[in-house]
Amino acid sequence: MKRILIFVFSVALPVLSASAFSDVPSSHKYYEEISALAADGILEGYPDGTFKPGETINRVELTKIMVASILDYDPGQDPSGFDIYALAGVPFSDVESGEWYIPYLRKAVENDIISGYPDSTFRPEDEVNYAEAAKIIVESIGIKKESGGEWYEPYTSALQELNAVPESVVRFDQELTRGEIAFILYALRDFYTEGGDGFTAYRISDVSTLDDFKGLNPSVIFIGGLYCSHCQAEAPEFERLVWDEYKDEVNIWLQVIDWDDVGFPVEVAQGYNENISYEALTGESCGFVPAWVVLDLAGNVQMTSCGGEHTLEEMVAELELLLAS
User: Fold this and answer.
1) b/e map 64-79, b = 16+ CB within 10 Å
2) What is the side-by-side order of every strand in the sheet holding 251-256?
3) Which residues of 186-219 are buried (b: 16+ CB within 10 A; e: fewer)?
4) DSSP 27-41
C-alpha cells in the first residue's frame, strides 16, 4: 500500500526535460499535461528531445512507470540484498531472469497491481489497452472503486468518475498512446503529488478490512474526536511530528469519530471510516481518545496507545525502527 515519485516513459535511457519537447508544441492537445508533469519531474522523454506522444506504450513500460512513481521504487536502491533480477516472486511463465523489468514486475505483484493472464503469462511487450491500463493505474494509486460487472469495469468506472478518460478513448480494448497516458496521470495528480488529496490519504480512507494494510508501507492511525480537548491539543503535534515528516513513506490517517464533513484544523489526511476503529485494528476495546495504532508493512500491530498511555515521541521512535528494518 504503496511512496512517490519519478516516472519514466521509455525503455531506452531517457533524458529529463522540464521544457517543452520538440514534438509537443503549445498547440498539441496534451501540451499542458505533458509539460506540467515534465516540469514536476514526473515525465521524461527520449535522448533526441522528443516525447513521442502518439506512440503506444506496452504493458511492462506502464507497470514500470507506476511502480517507479507511486511506489518510489528504484532497483538500484533495493534494500532486500537478494538477486532482484531472479524470477523469485515473479509468477509469469513468459519472462526470463535478468530482464531489466523483473524488479518492477515483482514489486507490482507484491502490491497487487498486476496479476497477469489466466495462462500464467504477462505478455510484457504487448501494447497496453485502456482496460488493462485502467487497472494498473487505479491499483497503483489506490483509487476507490466499486465492485461488479466485467473485471475491468470497476477500474474504468473509477477513471470515468474522476474525468480521467481522454476523449480519444472510445473502446475498452483500445491501445493507449503515451499522450493519453499523460492525460490520465495528469487528471489524477491530486492523488499522488505532494499537496494533493494524497495517495496515502485516499488509500487508507478506502480500507475495508485489516488485510487491506498488508503489503503497504507502515501505517499510523490516530483516533480522536472534535469534542475532545486533548485531541484538539495533540492534532497539531501529530501533524508536525508525524504527517510533516513521514507522509511520503508512511500511510497516515486521522480517524475523526464525530466526523461531519468537518475535521481538525490540520493538514492531515482525515475523515471517518467505519472499518478503521481501535477494536478492528487491535482486537481490543478502547473507550478513550486520543488513541492511535502503528502497523508494520504487513499490517501487524506494533504499538498502540489508548487514552494517552504512550506519547507521540514514542510513536515516532517506533516509526523510525520500522522504516530502518
Assistant:
1) bbbbbbbbbbebeeee
2) 270-271, 251-256, 219-224, 291-295, 301-306
3) bbbbebbbeeeebbbbbbbbebeebebbbebbbb
4) TSTTHHHHHHHHHTT
Q: 219, 204 in Cβ contact below 8 A?
A: yes
77-124 pLDDT tens trace:
888 888 999 999 999 999 999 999 999 999 999 988 999 999 999 999
The owner of cell 533526441 is 48
Residues linked to residue 224 through DSSP beta bridges, in sequence order: 256
* Distance between CA atoms of residues 112 and 114, nearest Å: 6
Task: Note the pTM of the prediction, 2 decimals.
Answer: 0.60
Q: Yes or no: say if 105 and 122 are a contact pair by the CB < 8 Å rule.
A: yes
Angle, vertex CA 275, rays to CA 278 and CA 207, nearest 5: 115
Give the span between the Cα atoms of 30 and 36, in whole angstroms. 10
Cβ neighbours of 152 (radius 10 Å): 18
Q: Are 325 and 266 in contact (CB under 8 A)?
A: no
